[in-house]
Each structure stands twice: as structure tokens, then as C-alpha cells.
Amino acid sequence: MSRAWALVLLAGAMEILWALGLKYSEGFTRLWPTAAVVVFGFASFFVLAEAAKTLPLGTAYAVWVGIGALGTAIAGMILFAEPATTLRFAGILLIVAGIVVLKLA
Length: 105
Hints:
The protein has about 100 residues and is mainly alpha-helical. The chain has one domain (about 5-105). Helix content is about 80%, strand content about 0%. The protein has helices at about 5-25, 30-50, 55-80, 85-105. The longest helix is centred in the middle third of the chain and has 23 residues, at about 55-80. The relative contact order is 0.16. The mean pLDDT is about 95.
């Protein structure tokens, strides 16, 4: 795997963390989760920008968003008891398929 794709994966992981921080921050009323949102959000954008120096922007951004959406949806089901329905899993599989296709393009 190239360095740029590793950076997209890292940026995607940080996107999941800042998105989860949104829930834990309770509308930005809790200090540490709010700080985590800011730190991981900035870091995620910064790392994505580094990857975009090499990769096509549209592909890098779409894969980053896909990783964040996929990870956040799964984490929501695990951490917050969000519904784990067949339709939800079908949507997750479509996101994965989109990420794979973009990576191969």
C-alpha cells in the first residue's frame, strides 16, 4: 500500500473518532469530548490534505468519507445500540463496494 493510501486510512480513522466525539460531547457541552472533536477533526483534515498531494482529490475525499460513514455507522450500532437492520447492513455493503471501486479506479 502506498503512503498516500495509508494516510487516507489514518484520516478516515480519525474522522470516525471526531464523529463519535460529537455524540459524547452532548452538543458541545462536555469539555473533553468537545476537545477530541476539534483535535481529531483538524488532524483528519490535515492528514487527508497530505494524501491529496499525491492522490486524485475526488477519489481520496470519497474514500475518506466512506471510511468515516462506514466506521461511524458500525460504531453507532455497537456503542449506542442503534438499529442493526438488514437495510442498514445493505447500505454498509454498498459503501464498502464504493470504496473498493474508487480504490481500484
